[in-house]
Amino acid sequence: MPGNKLNQKPTSKPARQLLFSEALQHKRLASTTTNPQTSSPPTESITMAEKSHSTTMDRILQEITTVSRRIEGMDASITSLTLETKSMRAEIAGFQSRVTGLEQRMGLVEAQTTMSRDRDQDLLYLRHKLTDMEDRSRRDNIRLHGIPENEEGVDVQSFLRSILPKLTSLDFDPPIEFQRAHRVGPKRPGNSSRPRPIIACLLRHNQTRQILQAARKQGPFQLDQYVIRITADYSKETNDRRKAFLALRPLLRQLEIKYSLFDPARMWVTKNGVSKDFYNPEELQIFLDSFQPQSMDSTSISGSHDNGGDNEGNLPPGQEKTNTAQYASIKGINRRMVSRLILHVEVKKISF
């Protein structure tokens, strides 16, 4: 029959596959419905998965929160470090500016020190030259100590012309002539026991040398009841150095060191066959200190080892003392003279 389904043509292949898939799906659903024990309910598995997922998310959120807090703390620390770094940079910049200023000042100070040192050297040289010129201008002068006041009368030159040949036992040919002669300093009030010295400038230098040589050899001269000493005339600087050298004579004698004081102020010493010159009393004091002398007594200074040097210098009669009390003050005397003698420290190094 035309209307019978069996007589109909079979469906196409895609339609058959679709029908097969639908039938297979219905079969699976039916098997699931008929055997409920073979699989867990879908609702319960979904709930457990959601809980596990929720727990994991919470942990992740906690970790994120912790990391965020740490990052915030690090940001704060970085901000603080940045501020400190800026402050340190500002301080370093200030230090650099101060150091630059100090370097500039030090440069100025060094320049001024160099200039001052050069000026000191120039001043030292000029002062030495001035002292040398003054000493040279006094080479024809002699000083006579111990002549009572008013003994010379009105004419000092005539008085000296009469007594000098007697004192020195010299026969002057031609006779002594003076350029000038007078007392030194203002007259002391009353009858002073310390008469003013007489300074005389001779016309001929060879006669001046003869008188000074006789004074060195014969020592103090006797005129009636008076003791008269004749010395050379030096500048104050040279005279101070000579006094400082002469103050060291007791120590030189105690150490058995031969010595001579030459013009204008040079001490020559000999120890164990070795000779040495000293132009500065302070240097001689240091040299003597190296021997570590023992305490001084009167017997150790009784013998003199003067080697034919100059006389006692511009010291008035009776001023020379060699007792223990004076020796105790020798070093102090020399130390007090340092300020006046410092200009002579480099005398040997200065060339003319």
From TrEMBL:
Residues 31-43 have a biased composition (Low complexity). InterPro entries: Transposase_22. Residues 28-56, 295-322 are annotated as: Disordered. Residues 295-305 have a biased composition (Polar residues). This is L1 transposable element RRM domain-containing protein. It comes from Pleurodeles waltl (Iberian ribbed newt).
